[in-house]
Design a protein that fits this description.
With 506 residues, the protein is mostly beta strands. The chain is 2% helix and 49% strand. The strands form 7 sheets. Strands 24-35-26-31-32-33 form a 6-stranded antiparallel β-sheet, with no helix packed on it. A 6-stranded antiparallel β-sheet has the order 25-34-27-28-29-30, with no helix packed on it. Strands 4-3-2-1-21 form a 5-stranded mixed β-sheet, with no helix packed on it. One of its GO terms (cellular component) is extracellular region.
């Protein structure tokens, strides 16, 4: 009854589209959101489902914690639905987990009246006195859920045992769960034929440890230009990321249905920004759509403190994931994750320039009153300089009156892109103002940047997604990032092969 009573007050307020709220990134109606959960595609109705960690009662993390729910036809415009799964008591939470589509009814939860593409089963962490892995199933395609009467399905008597990600492994004909023993630094790999009874197959530990492991995930990803695939193990750490606070890392290797074996000893970071965490992939995606994923676009160091009004946090854009051999320095190419954004929008206005060698007094300008735009920049560094000469290619992103701005740019001397997101609107000692990423050129001294700016978040994709950097930023209340100015502090250093700006709307 407690869950039903709480529902009354949760959906009373309409979504307020303040200037600070992103338009093409998903945000909660109100209250608090963190990890994306239970992502899946309904093949029958052609609908994408997004669930998420949700406290609808306050704009900060607190229990009771629910699975919020939204649906989309295009992975860009999301419609909020009623709460999907809730706890039994106010001091408990439905923590992170995943959803699978049980086409073959291995659980026995479904009869023939339920379309095989809508036999939805959620596997999640129930956070009470201890953390256990529980099941809930849906008879209406993922809108309402019934908890399994014999929960939990996995209990190791631990308070730090969470975040199950389940996939179907066809070769061994079983369900595979990755779940963390968070403070023992272990990813545990379990197998099951019915989602109810689980056997421990193996453990995996690698990479940065930080304070604890969270949000693991195992998925098979294609290698660009081949018919080959590799398995990728994702793993989040918080706190203690090398970037500060929370971040995601990954490992590439092989999986035989029982054990994951990395192909090398390297730890790779998913994203080099401060605001990308708890990546999860979508289940039951058509093969032609590729491997799709989304993440929480914040950082536990300051997520509860950011200056949004009545709501907190957004997701990243959906990303398509592939693998390719990427230059990490002049002598080495590593098989690495390649990420490209997936979204649909209308272009309100646009401009494009090409074949310009920038001079000190030049400025390529664009205005986007909505505060939502994307840019694509392809440039070449013409001269190899050393200190004390320090050329910079800068894109200033400013408010309409120019009073506030953030600065994105490139320094060819140290071969690094940087973002200065320092403003007076948000002061927090952990909110790193300057972030950088070293990127190898994709050709001789040539670089590509695809940027998406959505009011208070900027996602950057370098060299067709070989490197990514996701960061939030905050301007004064009701202020939008409207004006873009591309400049250089030195003559004849940067040749702009092409640059385009597009204002976006949905």
């Amino acid at each position: 009854m407690r869950f039903s009573v709480l529902l009354i007050s949760i959906f009373c307020a309409a979504l307020a589209f303040a200037a600070e709220r992103p338009l093409i990134h998903f945000t909660p109606e109100k209250g608090w959101m963190n990890d994306p959960n239970g992502l899946f595609y309904d093949r029958k109705d052609d609908i994408w489902h997004l669930y998420f960690q949700y406290n609808p009662n306050q704009p900060y993390w607190n229990q009771p914690l629910y699975w919020g729910h939204a649906i989309s036809k295009d992975l860009t415009t999301w419609t909020h639905e009623k709460l999907a799964i809730g706890p039994e008591h106010a001091d408990e939470g439905i923590f992170s987990g995943s959803i699978v589509v049980d086409h073959n009814n291995t659980t026995g939860f479904f009869n023939e009246s339920i379309n095989p593409d809508q036999r939805v089963v959620a596997i999640y962490t129930n956070n009470a006195d201890i953390q256990t892995q529980d099941l809930a199933y849906s008879l209406d395609g993922g809108y309402t859920f019934t908890k399994y009467s014999e929960n939990p399905v996995l209990n190791v008597n631990s308070t730090q045992f969470r975040d199950p990600k389940v996939i179907w492994h066809q070769e061994s004909y079983q369900w595979i769960m990755t779940v963390v023993q968070a403070q023992q630094y272990q990813i545990q790999i379990y197998g099951s034929t019915d989602l109810k009874h689980w056997n421990l197959h193996s453990n995996f530990s690698a990479g940065f440890t930080g304070y604890q492991y969270e949000c693991p995930g195992l998925i098979e990803i294609p290698i660009v230009g081949t018919n080959e695939t590799k398995w990728v193990m994702f793993l989040a750490i918080n706190p203690g990321s090398p970037l500060g606070g929370s971040s995601d890392q990954y490992f590439i290797g092989d999986f035989d249905g029982f054990q994951f074996k990395p192909m090398d000893s390297y730890t790779r970071l998913v994203d080099l920004g401060k605001d990308f965490y708890a990546l999860q992939t979508f289940s039951d995606v058509e093969k032609t759509d590729g491997v799709l994923a989304i993440a929480w676009a914040s950082n536990w160091q300051y997520a509860n403190d950011v200056p949004t009004k009545g709501w907190r946090s957004s997701t990243s854009l959906v990303r398509n994931l592939t693998l390719d051999y990427i230059s990490t320095n002049p002598e080495k190419k590593l098989l690495s994750l390649v990420q490209t954004p997936v979204f649909e929008s209308n272009v309100s206005k646009s401009t494009e320039k090409s074949n310009i060698t920038l001079q000190k007094n030049d400025s390529i300008d664009f205005n986007a009153d909505s505060g939502v735009f994307e840019f694509e920049l392809n440039f070449k560094v013409l001269k190899k300089l050393t200190y004390p000469e320090v050329p910079n290619l800068d894109l200033y992103i400013s408010t309409k009156d120019g009073a506030e701005s953030i600065r994105f740019g490139f320094n060819p001397v140290i071969q690094a892109f940087y973002l200065d997101r320092t403003t007076d609107a948000f002061k927090n000692p952990f909110y790193t103002g300057q972030i950088s990423a070293n990127v190898e050129p994709y050709l001789d001294n040539e670089y590509k940047v695809h940027g998406v700016v959505d009011r208070n978040i900027i996602e950057l994709f370098f060299n067709d997604g070989a490197v990514t950097m996701t960061n939030t930023f905050f301007l004064s209340e009701e202020a939008n990032p409207c004006t873009m100015n591309l400049t250089s502090n030195m003559n004849d250093e940067f040749h702009i092969r092409s640059v385009s700006f597009k204002e976006l709307s949905v």
